[in-house]
Structure formats: structure tokens, C-alpha cells
Write a structure and sequence with these properties.
By secondary structure, the chain is α+β, with helices and mostly antiparallel strands. β1 (139-145) and β2 form a beta hairpin. The longest helix is centred in the middle third of the chain and has 16 residues, at 93-108. It folds into two domains: 4-133, no CATH class; 139-236, no CATH class. It has eleven helices and six strands. The strands form two sheets. Strands 1-2-3-4 form a four-stranded antiparallel β-sheet. It has a two-stranded antiparallel sheet with strand order 5-6.
Length: 241
């Protein structure tokens, strides 16, 4: 049983979230969902004790409710932030495991909210850096540092091209060099899992983008070649306490 008198939301209040949860559970009230969202998740990676206390109830709604899936995913995307709620997150282990199963089944149906649910699954698998960064590969950029010379390299994967470049704020992306995608057989670990999910579910654009994201880039500065995903993950993977 949750003691809601101790579960402050992102506005440091304790009296709104329980009632809002009851509203969305009984009537799926849009206004209640809107308020619930900004009470449980704020910008700058801020969540609260109420966010994790609400997670099991959101997961129960998730199989048939896109808003519940999205909000639960947003909470988990921020689970590695500086929120001071680690014990509450640990208490949600069963709900998170259930959420993984819900999302996996949902993705198989090739839903309209595929990318939102895919990102939520990444968060549920503790791939927080990919959950927060992965887009639809129409206009995606991933800044990384070259591991050899240290220059900042922009990795672009989108409709306009797939390349590494030096970003100049007056001239745009200059000294572009084409990326080298990984083959399906050359993928391993997280990249292989992400790619196989996208292929399984007929998400061709997503699968192709992942092959570039987990491929190799040439540094436009020194000409060295490095794995894109390794450098991005090393700089952005949160340090779990």
C-alpha cells in the first residue's frame, strides 16, 4: 500500500496524484492525463517519489492506453537522473518487468506509437541514453568526440544524408564523410537487439538507422575510424549509483 502522504510530486504536493490516477483509471479523462503528466515528469530529467509510486498503476493501464505507455516510458527514461528515488525505483522491479512484456507484445502489432513504445522499452531495459536520444532517423544528430584527436564530430543520420562532419555554426556541417553502416551479421549486444526488434516489426527506416548508429564513422579532422555507438554511449550512459 502506497503512503501517498509521503509521495510528493514534481510540484512538491501530495494531494493531487492519487485522485488523478483514479480519474484516468475510471474515465480516461484527457485533462487528468495532462495534469498527471506534468506532476509526474518535468523537463530537465526531473521526476519525483510520486512518479515511481504511480508507475505500477500506469503499467496496469498500459496494454490498452497509449497515454499510460508514454507516461510510464517518460518516467523510466529519467530513472537514472538525480531524483533521489532509487529505493522507490527498486520497489518497481516487478512493474518494470511487466511493462517490458506489455511493450514487447504491443510492438509486435506495429502500432502508430511504435517509436514512443520502442523508446519506452529501451528505458525499461535500462538503456537510458538510447531511450532519450533515439529518433525516427529523419533529422537525427549525435554529437561525439573523436577518440583519437578529441575533435567534436557531428554524426548525422537522416533523410538529408548519413555522415560525420565538423559543425560550423555559420557554414553548417562541413567536411562531410559518409558513415559506414554495420551489417546485420556484424551487430552485437544492444545494437543487435535493437535492430532485430525493428526488423521483426517491419520498421525498415528504424532498422536502417540503427545499422548506421551502430556502424563506424571517419573523423573529418584526423581521418581515424571509430564506432559511433561506443563513443556516444561512453559519453552519455548514466553512472548508476
Amino acid at each position: 500500500m502506497v503512503d501517498w502522504t509521503r509521495m510528493r510530486d514534481c510540484w512538491f504536493e501530495v494531494d493531487r496524484v492519487p485522485g488523478l490516477l483514479e480519474l484516468v483509471e475510471s474515465d480516461d479523462v484527457p485533462e487528468a492525463w495532462k495534469e498527471l503528466g506534468w506532476r509526474l515528469v518535468l523537463e530537465h530529467d526531473l521526476v519525483s517519489p510520486a512518479s515511481f509510486a504511480a508507475l505500477p498503476r500506469l503499467v496496469r493501464l498500459a496494454p490498452g492506453n497509449a497515454r499510460a505507455r508514454a507516461l510510464a516510458g517518460e518516467i523510466l527514461e529519467r530513472a537514472a537522473g538525480h531524483h533521489g528515488c532509487d529505493p522507490l525505483l527498486a520497489d518497481c522491479a516487478d512493474a518494470i518487468a511487466e511493462f517490458r512484456e506489455v511493450l514487447n507484445r504491443h510492438l509486435r502489432s506495429r502500432p502508430a506509437d511504435y517509436l514512443v513504445s520502442f523508446r519506452a522499452l529501451l528505458a525499461a531495459e535500462e538503456e537510458y541514453h538510447w531511450a532519450s536520444a533515439l529518433g525516427d532517423f529523419k533529422d537525427d544528430f549525435f554529437p561525439v568526440a573523436c577518440p583519437h584527436c578529441g575533435v567534436e564530430v557531428t554524426i548525422a543520420i537522416g533523410d538529408y544524408g548519413r555522415y560525420s562532419a565538423i559543425r560550423d555554426w555559420d557554414q553548417g556541417d562541413v567536411r562531410r564523410v559518409g558513415l559506414r553502416p554495420a551489417s546485420a551479421e556484424g551487430l552485437s549486444g544492444t545494437g543487435k537487439w535493437m535492430h532485430e526488434l525493428a526488423v521483426r516489426d517491419g520498421q525498415e527506416v528504424l532498422a536502417e538507422g540503427i545499422s548506421y548508429l551502430f556502424g563506424q564513422a571517419e573523423c573529418p579532422g584526423c581521418g581515424s575510424v571509430f564506432p559511433v555507438a561506443d563513443e556516444y554511449a561512453a559519453a552519455n550512459r548514466p553512472v548508476m549509483r
